[in-house]
């Protein structure tokens, strides 16, 4: 289904007066605090976060999946779903594909559909963590790190194939996430598997088009429980450095051991100009892939603060970051969940933009611990929802994307069109 501009206007109309009132009040207060409100809203309008194709269906857990209703059954339908999200919030204008789940049979047709929905292709994702039908070698004991050169070759070739699909579509990056690891001490020689991984990645890197990047994603455990070859940001950073200028680290919020200081990792990678990709989600225990901002919104805000301050710093030599939501679960309507996630990201971004950098640096220089904390908390405790709504509106979206989605009973319409079934994906 397509959502017309007229339908969005019609939705916004009755909400406008009260929205304007709240926005004016907040703008006045923020102006007094020295915030350039108009510029801030423009930055929110410009911010885009990609949606992964696998978040559009009901997600998997280790224990199984429940069929959702109206889930997309083809790449075209996934694009339509992201198009719908983007029409509602104008902040999710890109899709990230996964091969082999999203093989484009006809690239020209897919590109035309993308244009129709005003969408771009984010990074392409390869998959060497599942065996596919007709695959010669199994990845049960690893892929790019495997002890058998034939398996490594197959995994490298798969990544080259993903690059080729991405080139046809106009993507500019490849994300490599490896499940490779071990579940028992002694199972693997740590040095050998890391060296194998590096050499395999080097072959993939050599095949990257000149204007492409490769993002190396890390994760401490799962699916294996004793060791993972690319376990942490240090290992990813090491590989990215050895590979060269087109290789970057990708931070996925769920891929850290409990209580890791992710904002500090972000700052370090930015300092080195090596933060390439970012996967948003939230978690209580591990890689829970829950709705962004649902568990630790203060952490999300602190991360955004590092992103904003790091990227705004003229000393920083980091390319624009590829932002993506990487969430997938069982309980919610996936589109509603993604609307919540995008809003949470925009809220954290807006709060980070409120922070007076100069005042913060002055407090730091004075070792004014309380003062610095107050500056951070004042921004976090500001209700910035009117700013985010205004950004949605100015960009041509709905003042209340989730409200409109529910009012239109979108899921029911998708069910009528598509029926019951599980989308391809995790
Ligand atoms: C598995 O943990 C994972 O969620 C990674 O975060 C990847 O980004 C994603 O799957 C898709 O490959
Ligand atoms: Mn991820
Ligand atoms: Mn993950």
Automatic annotation (TrEMBL):
Pfam families: AP_endonuc_2 (PF01261). One of its GO terms (molecular function) is isomerase activity. InterPro entries: L-rhamnose_isomerase, Xyl_isomerase-like_sf, Xyl_isomerase-like_TIM-brl. Residues 104-288 form the Xylose isomerase-like TIM barrel domain. Keywords: Isomerase, Manganese, Metal-binding. This is L-rhamnose isomerase / sugar isomerase. It comes from Catalinimonas alkaloidigena. The lineage of its organism: Bacteria, Pseudomonadati, Bacteroidota, Cytophagia, Cytophagales.
């Amino acid at each position: 289904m397509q959502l017309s501009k007229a339908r969005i206007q019609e939705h916004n109309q009755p909400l406008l007066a009260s929205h304007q009132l709240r926005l004016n009040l907040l703008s006045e207060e923020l102006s007094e605090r020295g915030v350039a409100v108009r510029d801030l809203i423009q930055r929110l309008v410009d911010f885009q976060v990609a949606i992964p194709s696998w978040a559009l269906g009901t997600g998997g857990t280790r224990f199984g999946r429940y069929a959702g209703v109206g889930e997309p059954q083809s790449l075209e339908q996934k694009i339509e779903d992201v198009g719908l999200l983007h029409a509602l919030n104008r902040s999710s204008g890109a899709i990230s594909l996964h091969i082999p789940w999203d093989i484009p049979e006809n690239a020209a047709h897919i590109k035309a559909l993308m244009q129709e929905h005003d969408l771009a292709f984010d990074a392409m994702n390869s998959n060497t963590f599942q065996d596919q039908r007709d695959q010669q070698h199994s990845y049960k004991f690893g892929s790019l790190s495997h002890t058998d050169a034939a398996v490594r070759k197959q995994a490298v070739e798969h990544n080259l194939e993903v690059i080729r699909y991405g080139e046809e579509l106009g993507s500019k990056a490849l994300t490599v996430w490896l499940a490779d690891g071990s579940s028992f001490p002694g199972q693997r020689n740590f040095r050998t598997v890391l060296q194998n991984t590096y050499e395999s990645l080097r072959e993939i890197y050599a095949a990257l088009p000149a204007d492409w990047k490769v993002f190396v994603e890390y994760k401490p455990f799962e699916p294996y429980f004793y060791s993972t070859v690319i376990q942490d940001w240090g290992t990813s950073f090491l590989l990215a450095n050895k590979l060269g200028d087109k290789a970057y680290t990708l931070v996925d919020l769920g891929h850290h051991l409990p209580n890791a200081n992710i904002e500090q990792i972000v700052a370090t990678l930015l300092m080195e100009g090596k933060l390439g990709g970012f996967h948003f989600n939230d978690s209580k225990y591990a890689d829970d892939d829950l709705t962004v901002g649902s568990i630790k919104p203060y952490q999300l805000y602190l991360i955004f603060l590092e992103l904003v301050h790091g990227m705004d710093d003229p000393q920083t030599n980091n390319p624009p970051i590829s932002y993506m939501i990487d969430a997938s679960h069982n309980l919610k309507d996936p589109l509603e969940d993604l609307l919540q996630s995008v809003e949470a990201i925009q809220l954290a971004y807006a709060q980070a933009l409120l922070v007076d950098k100069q005042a913060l640096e002055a407090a730091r220089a004075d070792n004014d611990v309380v003062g610095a904390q107050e500056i951070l908390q004042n921004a976090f405790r500001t209700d910035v929802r009117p700013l985010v709504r205004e950004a949605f509106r100015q960009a041509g979206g709905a003042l209340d994307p989730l409200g409109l989605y529910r009012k239109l009973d979108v899921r029911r319409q998708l069910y009528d069109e598509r029926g019951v079934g599980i989308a391809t994906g995790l």
